[in-house]
Amino acid sequence: MLDEVDKALLEALQEDARLSYNELARRVHVSPPTVAQRVRRLENMGAITGYRAVVDPTVVGRPVVALVRMKCYGPRCITVHPELLDDLPEVVEVVRLTGDICSVVKVVTTSIVELERLLVRLATHGETSSAMVLSTPIPWRPVLPG
């Protein structure tokens, strides 16, 4: 179970994963060795699954962002066999769903032409329906522990 210190650490690390143990200790009012122990425990229990930079696709040359709804079944299903998409770096996220579609695939491409090529490739795995992202009024935000 998570206590208030764990929750405060998770919130602080989601806000800025580059915080030092000293700074985290100052923010949550415990010692740096306690912070180090708690962070390791949170990693080992799977509460913290990784650390990464959040990159704006437009700034790095991938201004076309789209969400692709997929209906696929059987041996070509990307939710059952996600390795089928390993050679597609344009695919940045796949979410498995319930209901009439099996997944939503988030893709980032350099152009509409590249998006079209990618959609043709994804169609080999099932029925697709895509929507381009115009803006993100609510960007990613931290998960608050319950």
TrEMBL record:
<dbReference type="InterPro" id="IPR019888">
    <property type="entry name" value="Tscrpt_reg_AsnC-like"/>
</dbReference>
<keyword id="KW-0804">Transcription</keyword>
<dbReference type="InterPro" id="IPR036388">
    <property type="entry name" value="WH-like_DNA-bd_sf"/>
</dbReference>
<dbReference type="InterPro" id="IPR000485">
    <property type="entry name" value="AsnC-type_HTH_dom"/>
</dbReference>
<keyword id="KW-0238">DNA-binding</keyword>
<dbReference type="GO" id="GO:0043200">
    <property type="term" value="P:response to amino acid"/>
</dbReference>
<dbReference type="GO" id="GO:0043565">
    <property type="term" value="F:sequence-specific DNA binding"/>
</dbReference>
<keyword id="KW-0805">Transcription regulation</keyword>
<dbReference type="InterPro" id="IPR019887">
    <property type="entry name" value="Tscrpt_reg_AsnC/Lrp_C"/>
</dbReference>
<dbReference type="Pfam" id="PF13404">
    <property type="entry name" value="HTH_AsnC-type"/>
</dbReference>
<dbReference type="InterPro" id="IPR011008">
    <property type="entry name" value="Dimeric_a/b-barrel"/>
</dbReference>
<dbReference type="InterPro" id="IPR011991">
    <property type="entry name" value="ArsR-like_HTH"/>
</dbReference>
<protein>
    <submittedName>
        <fullName>Lrp/AsnC family transcriptional regulator, leucine-responsive regulatory protein</fullName>
    </submittedName>
</protein>
<dbReference type="InterPro" id="IPR036390">
    <property type="entry name" value="WH_DNA-bd_sf"/>
</dbReference>
<dbReference type="GO" id="GO:0005829">
    <property type="term" value="C:cytosol"/>
</dbReference>
<feature type="domain" description="HTH asnC-type">
    <location>
        <begin position="2"/>
        <end position="63"/>
    </location>
</feature>
<dbReference type="Pfam" id="PF01037">
    <property type="entry name" value="AsnC_trans_reg"/>
</dbReference>
